Amino acid sequence: MIDRQYIGHRMPAFSVDVEKGRLRFFAKATGQTDPVYTDEAAARAAGHPGLPVPPTFLFCLEMESPDPAAIRNLLAMDYRKLLHGEQGFSYHGMAYAGDKLTFEQRIEDIYDKKGGLLEFVVRLTRVTNQNGQHIADLRAVTVLRHG
Q1: Angle at 95 between CA 93 and CA 96, to 5 degrees
Q2: Residue 119: CB partners within 8 Å, gap ≥ 6?
Q3: What are phi and psi of 61, to 5 degrees?
Q4: pLDDT, tens digit (0-9, with 9 covering 90-100), for 28-79
Q5: DSSP per residue, 58-91
Q6: How many domains does the chain divide into?
Q7: Domain harbouring 112, CATH code
Q8: pTM of the model
Q9: DSSP 28
Q10: Terminal Cα-to-Cα distance of the chain (whole angstroms)
Q11: Per-residue pLDDT tens digits for 81-123
Q12: d(CA 13, CA 60)
C-alpha cells in the first residue's frame, strides 16, 4: 500500500520556457486549424500578444520536469503496474510563446478501491507565469494495480 503520509507532499518547483516552434509543432500534430496557434500575425489580429499556448500543451511542458518520474519514485510505484486514470485542466489565464512557466506539483490525494487492488494517486500542479499570474491547475490521476 502507498503510504498516505505523502498526501500534501510538494515536489520542487521547476520552470520551462515556452517556445514558438514547439507551439506550432504541437498545434499541427493535434490538428489545430485555428491560425492563431501557428501564425503570429493572426494571433495579434485576434488580440493576443503572441502565439497562445494550445489546450493541453501544458501537460507536455510538465513532462520537462528535471525528473518526470519523481512522484512515481517517491511512492515506489512499479511503472509496469501503472495506468493513466484521468487528466484535467482548469485554466485561469493565458500563456504565450516567450513566457517562462513555473510548475508546482503536489500529491493531492492517495486512496484505494476494490479492497486495495487499485490505488489512486492524485497529482495537482499549479502553473504560474513569469509575472506570478496563476495560469492553470493540472490534475492527473495515476492508478496502481495490485494482484
Answers
A1: 145
A2: 1, 2, 110, 111, 112, 143, 144, 146
A3: -65, -35
A4: 999 999 999 999 999 999 999 999 999 899 999 999 999 999 999 999 999 9
A5: HHHHHTTSS-TTHHHHHTT--GGGEEEEEEEEEE
A6: 1
A7: 3.10.129.10
A8: 0.93
A9: H
A10: 12
A11: 999 999 999 999 999 999 999 999 999 999 999 999 999 999 9
A12: 16
What's phi and psi for 66, nearest 5 deg? -55, -25
User: Domain limits at 83?
Assistant: 4-145
Spatial separation of the C-alpha atoms in residues 94 and 122, rounded to whole Å:
24
φ, ψ dihedrals at 143, nearest 5°? -110, 130
Amino acid letter, residue 121: V
Angle 102-20-64 from CA coordinates, rounded to 5°: 40
